[in-house]
Write a structure and sequence with these properties.
heterodimer; A: 230 residues; alpha/beta; Rossmann fold; 10 helices; B: 217 residues; 40% strand; elongated
Chain lengths: 230, 217
């Protein structure tokens, strides 16, 4: 349709490709933007806890994405997929923090391997801000997690790994916040900047986890007992 | 003669920059830092700005380019190799924080492995200030062009703090403040005359650090 409209104008016929480019550029300002968070995460330099931990990534966690429909505000819509990066990040962090890590993929895994506890991370909230909204020349991303430790017997009794943070009978349950930002840079697209802010937020989540793990009273009590029996 | 014209053009295309440098150091390494290494890190904990990574790279390049005996560990490699202890949330803000860090055995081992003698923290940023003027650009089937004049100011303000890793102490502070005015006249084609404000700050701070760290300073 746009092409027919352009063809009807004499001047435009000569410079059709140039004008089509402008139209595409203008329309792209209102289109949706997709970010599949991608980054490399270093292995933490920390002393390992002499414990074996099971890790359960729920499907919701593995496929997590933030969707913000900006069409009603006349702005671009955003879809930020963090699931793959979340799994990659936590799978780098946890083996550095514990002696052994068992990824729980089936209920049988809980019987086959002896784990001290099962760690279940849940993403409660992810928010982002770009310079267009804040007038500050930084891209920002916040994440809030709900982290839980559950006894393997509880999951075996439940006979299902289809769990949510609310229906899980965890013996330790605490929240963790993370923040990442990246300043505006010449020739950097919004997508690249939001990706970088998300990677920074994940790194911050790791920093917060490592420095605060054991500060929650229930985790502290579990650590005291578990380390004593090792 | 062949070189004169490009030189004049380059001079003309660079705006003027004024720079102020300040330094307070002690315990400079008399024989240089030997086979040790240094790392230059940017502060990233302020809510509204980050010290630019390319500015940090620029200072590192200035030092290693002029004294090949000094090993400068790249910032990103250092922060990754000691993750998560130099993230914005966890990075020590004062030299006292180093003692707490060195108490963590794997961190202390890594620092020894890197043979780190000095850590330099750089805090600051470059930002555009006032801007005036206007420019109109047009495009027609016959061609396009711009007409007008624009000018803007740029200011850089950086402070470097040097920590000695062998005795966990602060051994100096240096600062560089630069400012300049850039111009963009346009008669058909816009001609940017950019003041190298950040680059001047990098050279100033880099030179001060080089003098401190180099043998025979």
């Amino acid at each position: 349709m746009v092409e027919r409209l352009l063809d009807s104008m004499t001047i435009v016929r000569k410079h059709k490709s140039l004008l089509l480019g402008f139209v595409v550029l203008i329309l792209s300002g209102c289109s949706s933007r997709e970010v599949v968070v991608d980054g490399s995460f270093p292995e933490p330099v920390i002393p390992k806890l002499p414990l074996t931990i099971g890790v359960l990534y729920t499907d919701t966690f593995k496929n997590h994405e933030l969707v913000d429909d900006g069409s009603a505000r006349g702005e671009a819509s955003w879809r930020v997929s963090t699931g793959v990066a979340q799994v990659e990040f936590w799978s780098t962090l946890l083996p550095a923090a514990f002696n052994d890590v068992i990824y729980i993929n089936s209920i049988e895994d809980l019987s086959n391997y002896q784990v001290d506890a099962v760690f279940v991370p849940t993403i409660v909230d992810v928010q982002y801000a770009i310079p267009l909204y804040t007038n500050v020349k930084v891209y920002e991303l916040w994440m809030r997690y709900r982290l839980q430790l559950v006894e393997p017997e509880v999951l075996i009794e439940q006979a299902s790994l289809d769990v949510t943070a609310d229906n899980l009978q965890a013996f330790a349950d605490w929240t963790l916040s993370a923040y990442g930002k990246t300043p505006t840079a010449f020739m950097q697209s919004d997508i690249d900047a939001v990706n970088l802010a998300a990677v920074m937020a994940l790194r911050d989540a790791g920093a917060n986890f490592i420095t605060s793990f054991g500060q929650a009273p229930s985790v502290n009590a579990w650590l005291a007992t578990a380390l004593e029996s090792e | 003669m062949r070189l004169t014209l490009p030189l004049i053009v380059i001079l003309f295309l660079s705006g003027c920059v004024t720079a102020n440098v300040d330094e307070m150091t002690f315990d400079a390494p008399i024989a240089g830092i030997g086979d040790g290494s240094i790392v230059i890190l940017g502060r990233r904990h302020a809510p509204d700005y980050d010290t630019e990574p390319d500015f940090i790279d620029c200072i590192g390049d200035h030092i290693s380019g002029r004294d090949s005996s000094i090993t400068v560990i790249p910032e990103r490699a250092f922060v990754d190799s000691l993750y998560p202890w130099f993230e914005p949330r966890t990075a020590p803000l004062s030299v006292e924080g180093l003692d707490r860090l060195m108490a963590i055995e794997p961190v202390a081992d890594k620092i020894v492995e890197l043979n780190l003698n000095y850590m330099v923290w750089v805090d600051g940023r470059t930002q555009d200030t006032n801007s005036t003027g206007s420019m109109t650009c047009g495009i027609s089937p016959a061609g396009g062009g711009c007409f007008g004049f624009g000018t803007w100011g740029t200011e850089s303000d950086y402070e470097a703090t040097i920590w000695n890793f062998t005795n966990n102490s602060e051994v100096g502070r240096m600062s560089a403040s630069t400012s300049g005015q850039s111009y963009m006249p346009a008669v058909v084609v816009p001609i940017p005359i950019i003041a190298p404000v950040q680059d001047t700050a990098c050279q100033s701070l880099g030179q001060q650090l080089l003098q401190y760290l180099s043998a025979g300073s």
